[in-house]
Write a structure and sequence with these properties.
It contains 8 helices and no strands. Helices cover 67% and strands 0% of the residues. The longest helix is centred in the N-terminal third of the chain and has 26 residues. It starts with a helix and ends with a helix. It is mainly alpha-helical. It is flat and about 55 Å long.
Length: 216
């Protein structure tokens, strides 16, 4: 009986030790999780650094798009992937042109209808900002390039029909968007805004505040 009780006590103590070790391993992140988190921080760091470089970012997207269509031309396949990419880019482009607030929603703020309202209205806010628009397009194009290396996505289709249907959908969607812009009197173009030559430039050793104080 004493031997049985001793065996049960030993088994219980070993079980408790294994449970504590499992809990400790579950609470502490593994090396893979740490590497993944580090990689995400590095990617986010470079994305944040690239926000002000608009032209190089879009040149990178055009390069990815060129590589994708070159791949399609060389292999003469994956037309369904190209069609899906076209629909994806079109949806993002429409979101880029659309305002953040729906003008048809009477409960929220609306776009200006007169010149007086236009002077007091805040700048045009997009549903999809420029940086997120570029990121979504570049990421989608890169994913489609990778998809062209897997034969499971090479669905045999008659590509002229897909091309014709895409152009019909493109023109119909753009016509609806232009009519929406004309109806609510807004232009989703941010070019031509006033730019100040010395904005953010500190011309004295004491910084911008001291420089501004001295110039008065």
């Amino acid at each position: 009986l004493q031997l049985l009780l001793l065996s049960l006590a030993l088994y219980k103590s070993l079980d408790m030790m294994e449970g504590s070790d499992t809990d400790g391993m579950g609470n502490s992140p593994s090396a893979m999780q740490q590497n993944s988190a580090q990689l995400k921080r590095v990617i986010q760091y470079w994305l944040d650094k690239s926000t002000i470089h608009v032209v190089p970012r879009w040149c990178l997207f055009l390069f990815l798009l060129f590589v994708f269509f070159l791949r399609i031309y060389l292999v003469q396949g994956y037309f369904i992937v190209a069609y899906g990419l076209g629909i994806f880019l079109l949806n993002n482009f429409i979101a880029f042109l659309s305002p953040l607030e729906d003008p048809n929603d009477s409960n929220g703020p609306t776009l200006p209808q007169t010149s007086k309202e236009g002077k007091e209205f805040r700048p045009f806010a997009r549903r999809l900002p420029e940086f997120k628009f570029w990121l979504a397009c570049s990421r989608g194009t890169a994913i489609c390039i990778l998809m062209t290396f897997f034969s499971i996505f090479d669905v045999p289709v008659f590509w002229p029909i897909l091309l014709l249907y895409f152009f019909v959908l493109f023109f119909a969607t753009m016509k609806r968007q232009i009519m929406h812009m004309y109806k609510h009197k807004y232009v989703p173009i941010s070019f031509g805004k006033t730019k100040y030559k010395d904005a953010g430039v500190e011309k004295s050793m004491f910084g911008g505040g001291a420089a501004g104080h001295r110039s008065r």
